[in-house]
Amino acid sequence: MALKNIMLGIDIGGTNTVFGFVRKSGVVLKEYSIPTQSKKPAKDLIKRIKAEISEFLKQNKKTYKLAGVGIGAPNANYYTGLVENPPNLKWGDVNLVEIVKDILGVPVRITNDANASALGEMLFGAGKGMKDLITITLGTGLGSGIIVDGKLVYGSNGYAGEFGHVCIDFRGRYCPCGKRGCLEGYVSATGIVRTAVELLGKRICPSKLREIPSNHITAKLIYDLALKGDEIALETFDFTSQLLGVSCANVAMITAPEAIIICGGLAQAGDLLLKKTKEYMENHLISNYKNQIKILPSGIKKGNSAVIGAAALAWKEFSNI
Ligand SMILES: [Zn+2]
User: Fold this and answer.
1) pLDDT tens-place string over residues 152-161
2) Domains of the chain, start order
């Protein structure tokens, strides 16, 4: 019987690295998580990954063949294979593609985690069957991936799709990137908390949030209070949806996607965020764009999304293997 190809998806984070084998259908066969140990060199991490997966490959050598590896990592460059001075990792500039190829002996591709998510949604998630889509991942920050005509847009430098650092208010909040008014300073878990704290200072209405020290306020807490009708929490989500909706309209009018897919924990905020974002987006679209672009929550199971995204990169690149 012919061996079935599988891809290994690796998602490298500052604290943990998750990886797993993914079949062509998007099914995750086995998933692992190990500490990244960010002070040790990249080679050490890849050797530990090899040690973890060798047992599975040995046991299944009559069924599956590892055909390629896809990696999602911060500051990763698709063109060069380099991970350039990644935040939270003491690696400097390192060619991760070369290292993985040497150690695992199969073809390898790399991109940043937000781009990998976009491919994951197109191949296995809410964007299945679409060729033009944008994904926005809301976490501590805001990551994005743009797909045009079935291809991820990497741009001239390999870093295209930094929607989180598009300016929405040039006199606005300072961003760790050094600029002011970046979208992720508002539309992210961190940004939502900042908005709520600012509103508490501007409004006199009662709010449960007034009883909580500002450094204990979280986006989840604001969400829970908004569901209970807390005015400040509701206004926070309205403001966030407005900025996200206007920004979606702006980017939609550049690439005319079929859908904008919202990933990350906040994607679960349903009507409070997604429905309102859609309304605000529609208000800011010109007539020949109206009522065409969907705003959808991620179609990938939450725990698997990083590994599926990274493996999707390998499936996209090496599908003719
Ligand atoms: Zn920024």
Assistant:
1) 999 999 889 9
2) 4-120+303-317 (3.30.420.40), 129-298 (3.30.420.40)
